[in-house]
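Handout, section B. The chain below has 166 residues.
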Amino acid sequence: MSEKVKLQKKPLFPVPETNDPVNDVWRLILRANAKMLNMLLQECPDVAPGQKITYSRIRVLTYLAQANGDRVNIHDLSEELGITSGGVSQMIDSLVKSDMVCRTTSKEDRRVVYLSISESAKKRLDHISSYLHDRMERAMSRLAKNDRAQLADSLRKVLEALYEEA
């Protein structure tokens, strides 16, 4: 009988090391984002009964939570997420059915509908955020405190520069 060889699982997209910092940074950011997304999809509980967690749903709920009462409509979400208004509408329909998002018709124009996050969705989003924070904290604990602060500062500067150029 032959012995089964245990295969090491190689990532589909390995961590880049090209000696090109510009190339490495954007690839590392994408890789970290993909890993966090996989953790989110595989390990987090559903957003609501029958509503699987997805990156797009998290983005919608986060955007609505951060709006702090400001009026948000389908067009705003479409612009922010880079998804068509039709795609956003479908997602909102499912989130409304599960009581995660509330719709309010404008008093000035009945054609305009504003969106807000429900209280139950806020609690769920807090739970998911805590979960992701804990996972990231464990991963970041491998870095010295000074390195963590420097990483956050560097990423903040890169993001600011990207927004300035947009």
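Note. The two ends are 62 Å apart (CA to CA). Compare this with the example in section A.
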